[in-house]
Amino acid sequence: LQFQPQHHHHHHHPPKPLSLSLRIHNSTITNTTIKTHNTFQFLKPYILSQHKPILCGWLCSAISVYSLSNLLSKFSKIATINAPDTLPLAALLVARLIATYAQHALLWEASLNAVYNLRLHVFDRVLRKELAYFEANDALSAGDIAYRITAEASDLAVTLYTLLNTIVPSTLQLSAMMMQMLVISPALSLISAMIIPCMVLVVAFLGKELRKISKETHISIAALSAYLNEVLPAILFVKANNAESCESARFKRLALMDYSAKLKKKKMKAVIPQVIQAIYFGVLCILCAGSVVISRGSFDRYSLVSFVTSLLFLIEPIQDVGRAYNEWRQGEPAAERLFAMTRFKNKVVEKPDAVDLERVTGELKFCDVSFGYNDDMPLVLDGLNLHIRTGEIVAIVGPSGGGKTTLVKLLLRLYDPTSGCMLIDNHNIRNIRLSSLRRHVGVVSQDITLFSGTVAENIGYRDLTTKIDMERVKLVAKTAHADEFIRKLPEGYKTIIGPRGSTLSGGQRQRLAIARAFYQNSSILILDEATSSLDSKSELLVRQAVQRLMQNRTVLVISHRLETVMMAKRVFLLDNGKLTELPRSTMLDGHKDSLLSSGLVI
Ligand code: ADP
Ligand code: MG
């Protein structure tokens, strides 16, 4: 199931995709068959960690079954019962009600807890995956990941609950009822036993079908979620292109797919109990006929009532086992899909003996750095050499798609170079702790990431577990010329800015990003086209803020604007994977053409 994208795009390129395209990734569902065994192994620790509520729940189920069989055996003697004897009956009934309630509550607690822990684990694993996992052509979309972690994990809780509620309680009830029936009439019990193989056959057959349909419903709902995750963030773009009806139609198609898949599944599920009842009804008819023949005197009608009641309570656990089996058939793909997200091996790994650099001076060296995103694609960077001294400002210009942002990704070790190395203060960055490296290299890029949170949280965004230093936030905001507009916001620094900061202007967002970089205060600063999309009014303020930010740091400016480039001591051109220095003195005349052709705005 795949809708081909009509327009290929990369997330960091300024123009939004021309048409919103949707790709549904089900490679992990259809192509990779993970053995059930592995899925079990994957779930096992989460289930085992809940052994306490599970065992308590099972104990309650034993109490509940015990009270039931006692009740039923008393029923067979109901003719001889006197008024005072009904008291223990009532007590048994109450015991059963309470025990059954506790059983369900405890088993739900165990299932929800297991899935809660599983969810935390899966999301943490996803977060810690390297950038390549998210950027690959066949990467899962954000919507798909979101769907798996939200809805599918919830479904899995239902599956776990059903399984836990079946394994022991149903077996107990099944055996208790069989005993009951055997005691009353072995002959009739034998006839009734016919139900079991019939039901097993039906359930097994339907279970297989159910699993198939269940996969379809998973794919269609994931597609719906992926679609919404793509279209809603681009709402401005949709409106600007009058594309509401077009997107409505696209949504309708996906919603219809989900509807048909769900309907098919629900119809299938509705058949199962009917088939079981039909079998059950047949057996009842045989029993009624049979009892007349078999009983004769020794078998009174109370015994028949008791027997049939036991049979009724026998059907219940059998049905439960069938339901649990089906539930597992449906839940298994969900577990597999969650499991699949945890199995990805990062190529960028931290060495066990990596060092934590307390502070760096900011000397930067690239030695023969080559890099390609894929083996079968041409190199994006081809043998780059560059030495930036401490406190120096160096600019890199070049056509878009030339590999400038890729260079930044390498410096942050979001990818590792195919060959060559990068040094910070003469430490190979492969030998530096990732957290340390990313603390010392600050990046301000063109598209600024803001989270729905307060202004202060956005400026102090690092590790939200450490408390944000408000004094420092205000100080950096002043330095970044952001203080003035922040004060005018309804609640100042405590104002919640909407998702992606859509309530702020481009220049304001830019200044927040600069304030954030001040807050981070890294020795190495990279400005990746940081000031390329600004309105002229806020431009001066931003430029001043940037100039302040560049002081006392090693700065790599990536830009196609001459003004920003003019602040640099040396200017390099990155084109066709090669880096060449542009002589500064002749930059404005001799190399004007090459600068212009490389997209530099003068
Ligand atoms: P610049 O920042 O100079 O505009 P980039 O570094 O973003 O250029 O991109 C350089 C080249 O690498 C482009 O041809 C782009 O299509 C390609 N590219 C960027 N990101 C990826 C990726 N995740 N996977 C494959 N190719 C990519
Ligand atoms: Mg770029």
What is the fold's blueprint, element by element?
Elements: H1 27-30, H2 36-48, H3 51-75, H4 86-127, H5 131-135, H6 142-184, H7 186-192, H8 195-231, H9 235-240, H10 244-294, H11 301-342, E1 364-371, E2 381-388, E3 393-397, H12 404-411, E4 419-424, E5 427-428, H13 434-440, E6 441-445, E7 453-454, H14 455-459, H15 470-479, H16 483-488, E8 496-497, H17 506-520, E9 524-528, H18 536-550, E10 554-558, H19 562-566, E11 570-575, E12 578-582, H20 592-597
Parallel strand pairs: 3-10, 3-11, 6-9, 9-10
Antiparallel strand pairs: 1-2, 1-4, 4-5, 7-8, 11-12
Helix pairs in contact: 2-11, 3-4, 3-6, 3-11, 4-6, 6-7, 6-8, 6-11, 7-10, 8-10, 8-11, 10-11, 15-17, 17-18
The structure holds adenosine-5'-diphosphate and magnesium ion.
Magnesium ion (MG) is lined by residues 12, 404-405, 528-529.
Reported for the largest beta sheet, the result is: 6 strands, mixed
Heterogens: adenosine-5'-diphosphate, magnesium ion
Order of the strands making up the biggest sheet:
6-9-10-3-11-12
The low-pLDDT segments are 1-34
| Ends distance | 48 Å
Number of strands: 12
Helix content: 55-70%
Instruction: Determine the structural class based on helices, strands and strand pairing.
Output: alpha/beta
The overall pLDDT, averaged over residues, is: 82
